[in-house]
Design goal:
By secondary structure, the chain is an all-alpha fold. The longest helix is centred in the C-terminal third of the chain and has 38 residues.
Length: 375
């Protein structure tokens, strides 16, 4: 008996998009370090760093459509789910384990429930975290009411899975016209929340309650399926130095100060609407239409792409520790940023180690076990 692939092997990557995903992931870590010293949503240092999640959703939709749109005659829906689980779930497990190992080192006034949480309950939350099943606020063990209190950013993976299910069940069958209508309505849903809602920003999505789920779906539906539509339209923009251009655009979007203040929330809402609806698809179009020249740029994008998902899904337990350290000892920003720099470096190290020692070997084993069938 031999084994043959269930369907075609992985396609070649858009190298620049891989690199941009890595750039955005590292900026997320930096944003979270700076966020420790921010007073509130109106006084962030990297003012719009949280928009990286929305950028990731656009990228993800584009890449999923590229990888699978033309393969539905060669695979089943369950084949698709298995492939996505194998790609994403091993690092979810690692991120949850890192969160569990560091959990009791994060005890502080910022996280009032940690010191009263018994080990059995923390371990139960860890096991649930392995499955990506969201926890209700009643199971909170930190005090922030996160759906994944050991590793907060896992909330976006929960919505990523929802997007993948919607794509496989329904949206893959949409004509280009129907998909355009769906994306337009999703944009209206997003704008309604941003411009006419109570925040003027998309911060949120990480709790299981009506308000946070509203934010989560508003952040998910347009970006992800706009990425799918962008791929199907095939309208790529060809520029020289596309990676540099896109990186500069991302930096500008993230660093522009919040607009309008608490008395004019709609102004910032318009800014973020333009970023998510127009600028992020534009960046993806430029990145997908560009090409790399030179060994250094190619290696840099390959490395950044490789660590992008691991660093995003493993860094936040270190951020919890940083928050606890700063809040307990009243560390000023000038002194604390040295620790923040160390945190960024350690995050990259953990991400790379997790990738090479766990993620890649486990995914290879899972592919052989579940994506190959006897012939």
């Amino acid at each position: 008996m031999t084994k043959t692939p269930t369907y075609l092997p992985s396609k070649s990557h858009y190298e620049i998009l891989d690199g941009l995903r890595g750039v955005a992931a590292i900026l997320v870590v930096i944003f979270h370090v700076f966020e420790t010293y921010s007073g509130d949503r109106f006084h962030q240092i990297m003012n719009h760093g949280y928009l990286a999640v929305d950028f990731f959703f656009v990228l993800s939709g584009f890449v999923v459509a590229y990888a699978y749109d033309d393969r539905w005659g060669k695979m089943t829906q369950w084949d698709f789910y298995k492939r996505r689980l194998i790609r994403l779930q091993p690092m979810v497990i690692i991120g949850t384990i890192v969160g569990a190992l560091l959990f009791y080192f994060q005890a502080s006034g910022a996280f009032p429930l940690i010191s009263t949480t018994p080990v059995w309950k923390m371990l139960l939350v860890m096991l649930v975290g392995f499955t990506m099943v969201p926890l209700l606020p009643s199971m909170d063990i930190r005090g922030w009411q996160e759906m994944h209190p050991l590793n907060g950013p896992a909330w976006s993976l929960f919505f990523e899975y929802i997007a993948n299910i919607l794509y496989a069940l329904i949206v893959r069958r949409f004509s280009k016209t129907l998909l355009t209508i769906f994306v337009f309505l999703s944009a209206c849903f997003l704008v309604q929340f941003l411009v006419f809602g109570p925040q003027g920003d998309v911060i949120g999505g990480w709790s299981v309650d009506k308000t946070q789920l509203h934010i989560g779906f508003a952040r998910l539906l347009y970006p992800f399926f706009a990425g799918v539509l962008l791929f199907r339209m095939g309208k790529l923009i060809h520029f020289k130095n596309a990676f540099a251009i896109c990186t500069v655009l991302i930096l500008i979007v993230f660093w522009i100060p919040r607009i309008g203040g608490p008395d004019h929330l709609w102004m910032n809402g318009i800014y973020e609407s333009v970023c998510i609806i127009v600028i992020f698809p534009l960046i993806v179009s430029i990145g997908a239409g560009g090409s790399l020249t030179g060994k250094f740029a190619t290696k840099a994008c390959k490395f950044l792409g490789a660590i992008s998902y691991p660093i995003y899904i493993t860094h936040y337990p270190l951020i919890y520790m940083h928050i606890a350290w700063v809040s307990t000892y009243k560390i000023p920003m000038g002194e604390g940023l040295l620790g923040g720099l160390v945190l960024v470096i350690v995050s990259i190290g953990i991400a790379y180690g997790s990738l090479k020692l766990f993620d890649e070997p486990v995914r290879e084993w899972l592919k052989k076990r579940f994506l190959m069938k006897k012939a």
